[in-house]
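In this section we walk through a basic example: taking a raw amino acid sequence and producing a predicted 3D structure, encoded as discrete structure tokens. The instruction is simple. Fold the sequence below.
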Amino acid sequence: MEKSLLISRREAAALLGLSLRTLDYVIARKEIIVRRVGRRVLLPRLAVERFVNASAVARKSHNKQRTNPS
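The resulting token sequence is shown next.
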């Protein structure tokens, strides 16, 4: 089965391990872009993957700063 390019909020929340409310907060802060198709709010799968990668990099950077204070 092919992966679709756009996924629903519910699918994105499940992939990220977030509640819908938390995902809506992330969307409101424009940390993930969305596409509106009629009344549906869809997220590009690539944008969700980039969000995960950016979060992982930010965590590593934050942890490195805490373990190596200047």
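Looking at the output, two observations stand out. The radius of gyration is 15 Å. Helices lie at 9-16, 20-28, 45-67. In the next section we compare this with other chains.
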